[in-house]
Amino acid sequence: ASIQKKLGEEFGSEPGSEMLTAIEEAKKQNLKIELVDRDISVTLRRAWKKMGIREKIRLIWEFIKAMVGYDEEELEEIDLKELMKEDVMSAMMKEFSEFAPSVSHVLIDERNKYIAKKILDAKEKHGKVLVVVGAGHVKGIKEHLEGEKPLDDVDIRELEQLPKKRISVAKVFAYSIPVLFFSLILYLIITRGPAALADIGNIFLWWFLINGSLSALGALLARGHPLSIITAFLAAPFTSLNPAVAAGWFAGIVELKFRTPKIKDFQKLREIKSLRDFFNNSFTRLLMVVAFANIGSTIGTVIAIPYILKLGLG
Fold first, then answer.
1. pLDDT tens, 13-32?
2. Is 296 within 8 Å of 290 (Cβ atoms)?
């Protein structure tokens, strides 16, 4: 966002203004407008579903590091004209593909194919076409249009569909927790009878304390409202036993009620340059409360499971 803002200041235009200008000029000339890019929601959902657990963790970690942002000196050192050169842009695309191959494939390669195919379809219908695309896509789209990478096997409908659901490690883990927890309780009741009540009480107590405390700590680190922190503490022990819900959702609802984001918070998203800015913005802080409470609850579950197994079976 900081670099986008600097680009706007350097060249006297806002990000995306080239697209708006193209649309306005086309309307003035009564020309047909074709939106050839894929729906952003489909692109993001395809990218997320194609990522493995390692790639997701790596991406989330880089996102957290990026929240700190650039300081003014670092931004001044960035040569924007150099950044816009084709060879530099290609190097950036290559580096991104090495860092996050699944995301790169969906955000760049698939969209290059999709856009190129749509351009050819538009050319067949209208004859001559003028195309406005982002700099990062120019090289890839040209390769398809000039025949270096044929489009014969490109199926637009397939590129607009979400990948088939697969069983993920995270999902297996989430559903195994309630099975393990209640199996332990049932085992104690069957093998020990009434004598198991004390152990079962301890199991519930420690499960509640460990899960609730770490989820509340996450909400606290995100600088959540006191009631959001309490909500995370109370919700986590129960949501950890139900894969369909998450503690962060409840903490987020409370945060939204007491610190509702204002229009200015959305308007200032591009101005976020540091971790402090991130937490001072009501909208981004809301997202952090949800995320951190969920992370805390997950860590609490990982810690609590072996501990309660030791209590019950030790």
1. 566 777 888 888 888 888 88
2. no
